[in-house]
Amino acid sequence: GENVEQHPSTLSVQEGDSAVIKCTYSDSASNYFPWYKQELGKRPQLIIDIRSNVGEKKDQRIAVTLNKTAKHFSLHITETQPEDSAVYFCAASLDTGKLIFGQGTTLQVKP
Amino acid sequence: DAGVIQSPRHEVTEMGQEVTLRCKPISGHNSLFWYRQTMMRGLELLIYFNNNVPIDDSGMPEDRFSAKMPNASFSTLKIQPSEPRDSAVYFCASGRRETQYFGPGTRLLVL
């Protein structure tokens, strides 16, 4: 079955710097890759997603890139702010709708 | 537009008691997912339904766990009997195709 590895497990950056979180997946048939942000005590919230027919997608300060050949995808956050501090989860899915989540990355943005 | 609704939000019970968690998905969504989140194991998919039919229950930990979806607007996750190791946050999510939206979760503590 599908397996998703996420790195790093923790990431600390200064406010204004960029943050990059990387995920690799095992099943080349996976075709949907969402990213969720989870603040402490809150629910995971979908922040951006990408499908396998697209290489990059941007939404203001966040972007996701996908390399199908290497089977990895990344989340990029530019001009980080303290409110970006949270746990970020990547996931991969086949057409079944079942998401396989990575282990999560705790991002800390220092003011 | 209401999001996914879960009840109760918090549950404290004693070992051996029956626990029932409830979920109302977003109207129009045809998929419903139950997840469990702990520090040790992260976010685990327990079971998911498409059009009210259970598709994959391979994540259900053991026979003490059961889930039902009698109609498109309601699902339950039942634990009987409950054990301290069941203590976790249980999330329900609903979606169309692969995109999933999480409810606020039920924080369960089994003493």
Which key features would you list for this structure?
heterodimer, A: mainly beta, 5-stranded antiparallel sheet, 57% strand, B: 111 residues, mainly beta, 7-stranded mixed sheet, 4-stranded antiparallel sheet, 0% helix
CA radius of gyration of chain B is 13 Å
N-C termini distance of chain A: 41 Å
Number of beta strands of chain A = 11
Q: How helix-rich are the residues of chain B, as a percent range?
A: under 10%
Q: Which shape of chain B, going by the Cα principal axes?
A: globular
Mean pLDDT of chain A: 94
As a whole number of angstroms, the C-alpha radius of gyration of chain A is 13 Å
User: How many DSSP E strands of chain B?
Assistant: 11
C-alpha end-to-end distance of chain B: 37 Å
Structure overview:
The complex is a heterodimer of chains A (111) and B (111). Chain A has no helices and eleven strands. Chain A is an all-beta fold and 111 residues long. In chain A, the strands form two sheets. In chain A, strands 2, 4, 5, 9, 10 and 11 form a six-stranded mixed beta sheet that branches. A five-stranded antiparallel beta sheet of chain A has the order 1-3-8-7-6, with no helix packed on it. Chain A is globular, with a radius of gyration of 13 Å. Chain B is built from no helices and eleven strands. The mean pLDDT of chain B is 94. In chain B, strands 2, 4, 5, 6, 9, 10 and 11 form a seven-stranded mixed beta sheet that branches. In chain B, strands 1-3-8-7 form a four-stranded antiparallel beta sheet, with no helix packed on it. Chain B has 111 residues and is mainly β. In chain B, a hairpin with a 2-residue loop joins β9 (88-96) and β10 (99-102). Helices cover 0% and strands 59% of the residues of chain B.
